[in-house]
Specification:
There is one protein chain. 10% of the residues lie in helices and 39% in strands. The two termini are 24 Å apart. The strands form five sheets. Strands 1, 3, 13, 14, 15, 16, 19, 20 and 22 form a nine-stranded mixed beta sheet that branches. Strands 2-6-12-11-10 form a five-stranded mixed beta sheet. It contains three helices and 22 strands.
Length: 279
C-alpha cells in the first residue's frame, strides 16, 4: 500500500522547509507554501541558483498566516506582521511579471545582511490569479511551476544507487524540496504514471514532470554548492522533453486535508513522459 511518508511546505521561496504531520491543501498547494518570495531591489526573485545562502533561512509561520518569523545562523531572527493589504509592487518570476506586497524595511534589512545583497520580502496578494501549465492546468503562489511537487522514496533510493556507483555519497530528500513524499511504491518513478490520485480529502491531477536545475546541487545544511550530484547521475538515465527530470508536479482538483500516513489511491494511470530511463 502506498502512503504519504513526508509532508513539507516552504513559506518563503528558496528558503528552508517546514515538516508537517498534516496539512491543509488549497488550490495553490499546501497552505502557506511559497506564499513569500525574496526579491532584489528591482523586484527580481532571488533563488538558490545564485544565492545558495537562502537555504540557511528557516521560516516559521502561524496557522492563520498573520505572523512570519525568519531565523538564520549568526543572524538571530526577525518577525514580520504579515501585510496583505499594502501597496502592490511589480515583481518578476522567471521573466514573468506579477504583483507582490512588500513586507517592510525591517525584514528587508535583515535579509540583506544574511544574503549580502540588497533584498526585500514580498507576499502573494489575495487576488493573485497565476495560472500554471501542464497536462492539468492549475494555480500556485511563487512555486516554480505547479501547486504540489510529489516524489517517491523509491525514486530517491534508485538515484542514490546510481550516485554510489560513481563513488558519491547519498543525498537526502531535501535536495529536491518536495511537498509530498510517497512510500510503498517499490518501482522507482511510479509517480510519473500516477495521473490522478486521492489522498485524504484531496484529489490531485498530474501536470508535468519536474525539471531539475542547479538548486539540487546546493547542500541544504551548508547553504553552498555540494558538487556535481545529482545532476550528473540523473542526466545519465532521466530525460524528459524539457531536460533532466525527477519527480512530478501536480495540480489540485479538490482541496482539503491530508496527513502523513494517508493512503495514496491512484484512480488513473498513464504513460511516463520520460524519454528514457535506464536501469
Amino acid at each position: 500500500m502506498a502512503n504519504v511518508v513526508e509532508l513539507s511546505y516552504y513559506p518563503v521561496k528558496g528558503c528552508a522547509g517546514i515538516s508537517a504531520s498534516e496539512a491543509l491543501v488549497t488550490p495553490a498547494g499546501l497552505a502557506h507554501d511559497r506564499a513569500f518570495m525574496v526579491v532584489s531591489d528591482e523586484g527580481v526573485f532571488r533563488t538558490q541558483r545564485r544565492d545558495p545562502r537562502l537555504a540557511l533561512i528557516l521560516p516559521g509561520i502561524d496557522a492563520d498566516g498573520e505572523r512570519l518569523t525568519l531565523r538564520a545562523p549568526d543572524h538571530g531572527e526577525v518577525t514580520v506582521d504579515v501585510d496583505t493589504t499594502g501597496a502592490r509592487r511589480p515583481v518578476e518570476l522567471f521573466g514573468n511579471p506579477f504583483r507582490g506586497i512588500d513586507q517592510g524595511d525591517s525584514v528587508a534589512r535583515w535579509l540583506t545582511d544574511v544574503l549580502g545583497v540588497p533584498s526585500r520580502l514580498v507576499r502573494v496578494p489575495p487576488e493573485h490569479d497565476r495560472v500554471t501549465d501542464g497536462r492539468t492546468p492549475g494555480t500556485a503562489g511563487w512555486a516554480d511551476s505547479g501547486a504540489l511537487h510529489v516524489l517517491s522514496r523509491s525514486s530517491l533510493d534508485l538515484l542514490n544507487e546510481k550516485i554510489a556507483e560513481r563513488g558519491g555519497e547519498p543525498l537526502s530528500m531535501n535536495r529536491f524540496r518536495p511537498n509530498i513524499v510517497i512510500g510503498g511504491w517499490d518501482t522507482p518513478h511510479t509517480e510519473d504514471r500516477a495521473h490522478r490520485m486521492l489522498i485524504g480529502d484531496t484529489e490531485l491531477a498530474y501536470a508535468k514532470l519536474a525539471v531539475r536545475c542547479a538548486v539540487t546541487l546546493v547542500d541544504q545544511e551548508r547553504g553552498a554548492n555540494g558538487g556535481p550530484e545529482p545532476i550528473r547521475s540523473l542526466a545519465g538515465y532521466r530525460r524528459g522533453a524539457a531536460g533532466t527530470v525527477f519527480g512530478v508536479k501536480f495540480s489540485v482538483l479538490r482541496h482539503g486535508k491530508l496527513a502523513v500516513g494517508d493512503e495514496v489511491d491512484v484512480t488513473a494511470w498513464g504513460d511516463s513522459e520520460v524519454s528514457f530511463t535506464r536501469p
